[in-house]
């Protein structure tokens, strides 16, 4: 009965003893199979180690065992594709991949979320910062930016990038002065995001290998995403938030590469920040946001449609004044602000990359306990990328190879 770190647990392992919080509250009874959403709960509740049944080992089940669960997995996965065209080749390929992943987890004994788990937790103690009738996007952003200061390094970096005197040496020196930012950028440089053959151990080397403009864009995105703290855990635990943000960023970069687009770092940053507006809603309007999430669950509609029904607008309407206040590069803001309506963007093809990346990232979370219907998909967005549908399984496989190690650069 080894006691191991939760970071070493493989979904499908079995708890050999009751798992409890540091203050003794039961989280998971002994004998239960541990799934991805259990690991998220452990992290959120401060559980760091778990006693594991020696016999479980996390071994992969046989193909016959997986096949026995295919029908159940297909039925389960189909609920999440309710707003998508099942006859579109991309949606069909994605559905088959997700159903296979769910069947694999079912064969491992991982329990799917129950109806009870789909209900929202008690949020009576949370209060919105203002009444719904006056909670316009610009007002919410103004309230947030008046109370919370943005890191100085962001504006210094932005000023340096916009300066005609900008140079590799000046950018490197500026980044190097921020120890936390430097460490995160080096972890990214050594992650599968770049897959360099040798170790990248200095910012100088990272800039030389990745490029001055690219590393600067990456630094802006990393600084901005670190701004979001204090999100009520009842709405989203930060591990899940990071996983979705990094997944969308990674898919955006993979799609940009497949589409033959230059400067793919900016797409990783766009994916990383695509839900910035939603985080402001969670932070400033937690009670109303819970209503939106409940609406999405109970009516089986995408969260973006539940936002529209609850607030009268969606999270990208909040990201527009937010990114403008931050003076974020317009080329990057455009894709973030229009990823749910790429045809309305100044550069529709760029926004289409984030649109598709968001769909793929959400779909890959279905086997991890995602509770929400997938967002709408515009077929024209995929067509604008010029990527053959036959390449999608390869993109999904490449994502699965890179996701965990890329995420570890952030958490």
TrEMBL record:
Name the record gives this protein: HDOD domain-containing protein
Species name: Desulfolutivibrio sulfodismutans
Residues in HDOD domain copies: 147-342
Family matches, as Pfam families: HDOD
InterPro entries: HDOD (IPR013976), RNase_Y/CdgJ (IPR052340)
């Amino acid at each position: 009965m080894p006691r191991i770190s939760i970071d070493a647990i493989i979904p499908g392992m079995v708890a050999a003893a009751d798992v409890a919080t540091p203050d003794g509250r039961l989280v998971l009874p002994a004998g239960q199979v541990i799934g991805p959403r259990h690991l998220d709960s452990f992290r959120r509740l401060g559980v760091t180690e778990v006693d594991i049944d020696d016999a479980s080992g996390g071994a992969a089940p046989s193909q016959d065992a997986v096949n026995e669960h295919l029908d159940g997995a297909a039925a389960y996965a189909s609920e999440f594709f309710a707003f998508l065209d099942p006859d579109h080749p991309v949606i069909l390929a994605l559905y088959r991949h997700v159903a296979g992943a769910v069947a694999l987890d079912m064969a491992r004994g991982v329990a799917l979320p129950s109806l009870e788990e789909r209900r929202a937790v008690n949020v009576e103690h949370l209060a919105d910062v203002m009444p719904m009738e006056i909670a316009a996007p610009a007002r919410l952003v103004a309230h947030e930016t008046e109370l919370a200061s943005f890191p100085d390094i962001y504006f210094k970096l932005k000023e340096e990038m916009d300066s005609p005197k900008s140079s590799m040496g000046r950018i490197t020196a500026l980044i190097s002065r921020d120890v936390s930012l430097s460490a995160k950028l080096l972890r990214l440089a050594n992650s599968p995001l770049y897959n360099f053959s040798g170790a990248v151990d200095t910012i100088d080397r990272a800039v030389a290998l990745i490029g001055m403009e690219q590393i600067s864009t990456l630094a802006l995105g990393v600084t901005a995403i670190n701004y979001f703290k204090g999100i009520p855990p009842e709405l989203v635990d930060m591990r899940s938030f990071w996983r979705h943000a990094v997944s969308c960023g990674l898919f955006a970069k993979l799609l940009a590469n497949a589409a033959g687009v230059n400067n793919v770092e900016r797409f990783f940053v766009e994916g990383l920040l695509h839900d910035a507006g939603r985080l402001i809603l969670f932070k400033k309007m937690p009670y109303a946001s819970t209503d939106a999430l409940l609406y999405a669950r109970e009516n089986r509609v995408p969260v973006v449609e539940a936002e529209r029904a609850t607030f009268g607008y969606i999270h990208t309407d909040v990201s527009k004044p937010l990114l403008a206040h931050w003076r974020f590069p317009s080329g990057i803001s455009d894709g973030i602000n229009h990823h749910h309506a790429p045809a309305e963007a100044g550069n529709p093809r760029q926004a289409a990359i984030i649109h598709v990346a968001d769909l793929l990232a959400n779909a890959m979370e279905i086997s991890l306990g995602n509770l929400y219907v997938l967002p709408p998909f515009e077929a024209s967005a995929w067509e604008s990328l010029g990527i053959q549908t036959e390449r999608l399984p390869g993109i999904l496989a490449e994502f699965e190879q890179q996701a965990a190690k890329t995420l570890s650069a952030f958490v």
